[in-house]
Amino acid sequence: MKTLKARTVSVLFALGLAACGAASSTDTAEAAPAKPAAKAAAPVAAPAAAQVQPVSGPQVGDKIGETAADRAAAREKKAAERAAATKKQDAELAAKGVKRIGWEELMPEGEEERLAQMYQAQMAMLYSGAGVAEGSAADTAVQVGTFNTVKELNGKKIRIPGYTVPFEYGADAQIKEFLLVPYFGACIHSPPPPPNQTIFVIADKAIKMKDLAQAVWIEGTIYTQTQESELADAAYTIKLTGIEEYTY
Fold this sequence. Notes:
By secondary structure, the chain is α/β, with parallel strands linked by helices. The protein is built from three helices and six strands. It has a domain at about 75-245: CATH 2.40.50.870. The protein has helices at about 1-30, 70-95, 110-125, and strands at about 100, 155-165, 175-180, 200-210, 215-225, 235-245. Strands 2-3-4-6-5 form a five-stranded mixed barrel. Strand 2 (about 155-165) and strand 3 (about 175-180) form a beta hairpin.
């Protein structure tokens, strides 16, 4: 009897535990919400291509400044303007009876060839091997050339550009006579040009030379009259009527 009762209690206890477990499982299933089905991962969209914005300023690699064609056009324009200004000035000078000339017009026909031969003879002498003793009479700047002139220029009113070489120097030097030469430094830093490429200028009023490196325009009456000086001999003489700065 005791055994039956104990077995009966065990069965009842087991049934109670089973019932509790089922209930717990059911309650748990009801209490826990169902997990949603996993969704497929959305594909990552590629970033939209950046829109290129137009840039008005200079870009890397662009050339700064004018193009070769622009520079060529600017040079042609400037040359045309200069030619027009020169033509206008020549007309104004012609109205006054003045002619603008270049240094080559001071040399008579065939003079350039003769001058070239003289220079060649001088170079041959200098490099003959004899040499020149420093401080000797031969150690001086030799003026090579002739006094041959263009006779038709005598007494003509002309205008010619050149560089001034005064006989006196100083901040307050007032001069009435000076040389006009075709290149800077002649007679001072380099040998003098030929006599027929050197002009002796005489002014009525004293002139103050400000800058020897500045080219000038000389206007006056030219004569085929020789003048000698310590700096150089000149085959032409000009009686000055005007002087002004040469604009490049």
